[in-house]
Write a structure and sequence with these properties.
162 residues, alpha+beta, two-stranded antiparallel sheet, 3 helices, five-stranded antiparallel sheet, 27% helix
Length: 162
């Protein structure tokens, strides 16, 4: 019976982790969907967002890819990130994350006394969590400025896989 319970727990964890995963790179479908969206702020300034599920790193990468794609689509060569926001917790990939707790106590009842120590193991089956990255970018032509937040659009497109 214990083996069956352990097997069912493992299968449940796998099922939960399969329910929500990062969708392939693409445009956002619907208000709560995964994917990119952008908003034009000025002629060469945009707000680019990428909404996904799981670890924040991949979602942030795809926000950069979308900024690079937008840059080349608009006829520019480079972009500079002027502001960025990441919504999501570190390690947001979800899955099974064990935790351990230790406790102890003692009591006296009548002429008897007792003490004990316990160890508990907890599991988090929450699954991957929603996350998003938003970048405000300025697009430019010609030679890329030598600033840490300036990116050559074609280099980003070639270096981050989709």
């Amino acid at each position: 019976m214990k083996r069956l319970a352990i097997a069912l727990t493992g299968l449940s964890a796998l099922a939960l982790s399969a329910c929500a995963s990062l969708a392939p790179y693409g445009a956002q479908q619907g208000p709560n969907g995964q994917g990119f969206s952008e908003q034009r702020i000025e002629s060469n300034r945009y707000r680019v967002s990428y909404n996904g599920v799981g670890a924040t790193g991949r979602v942030a990468d795809w926000a950069l890819v979308r900024a690079a794609d937008l840059t080349t689509e608009q006829g520019y060569d480079w972009f500079e990130v002027t502001q960025s926001w990441t919504d999501g917790r570190p390690g947001g990939a979800g899955g099974v994350r064990p935790s351990v707790s230790i406790g102890g106590g003692s009591s006296r009842y009548g002429g008897y006394s007792a003490s004990g120590v316990g160890v508990g193991v907890g599991l988090n089956f929450s699954g991957p969590q929603p996350t998003s990255t938003t970048l405000e970018v300025v697009l430019g032509r010609g030679q890329k400025p030598e600033r840490p937040n300036a990116y050559d659009a074609r280099s980003v497109q070639g270096s981050i896989p989709r």
